[in-house]
Amino acid sequence: MGKMDEMIIVAPHYEVFENEKLSFQGTLQDKTVNKIIKNISNTYEVMRRGDAEENEKFKQPIPYAVIKRGDEVFVYERLKGAGEKRLHSKLSIGVGGHMNEVPGEKDFSKVLYKNLLREIEEELIIDNKEFKVAPIGLINDDEDEVGRVHIGILVSIEVPEGTDVQVRETEELQGQFLQIEKLKQRKFYERLENWSKIAIDIL
Length: 203
Known about the structure:
Layout (H helix, E strand, L loop, with lengths): L6 E6 H4 L9 E3 L3 H12 L1 E4 H4 L5 E12 L2 E7 L12 E2 L1 E3 L11 H16 E3 L5 E9 L9 E9 L6 E3 L5 E7 H4 L2 H4 L4 H7 L3
């Protein structure tokens, strides 16, 4: 099965944002977050990824985890071997991906958590598993074609000082820890993916 034939979780745009009543751009960190998450939880369905990527009537919820170590975050670059050509050579501070149904599980929060842990396990090698996961908020960016069909569920993963993190897919990614303040400098900031720019602004 090709990547675009994968069945992923989506939710109707008008249901997620209650006919635009809850729509926002950038990050959201207030009580509206819980309303939007509840709307996704109540209305999500599955769709072929290739169809979802072309259908702006649906939002694909994406767990987007920032790996923090003190005043640093883990940053990775998508190399030319990576699958999503629209994101080549960009820098990202978010680890995550499309969500799949979990057999026998309907609780969206548990489905989200299991998908997030799967993505971390697939993408990274973390030598200390005693990390803390904390929700931060939501990311929405309708300014580009990628953002218009996705909504990010932003979480922070705090790892202890000295923890080593490496990427698994070395042909597609390369990564390292960088100080948050350094990433806010223009030469790094301008290379960040839109979602990462949005996230770094509130870290």
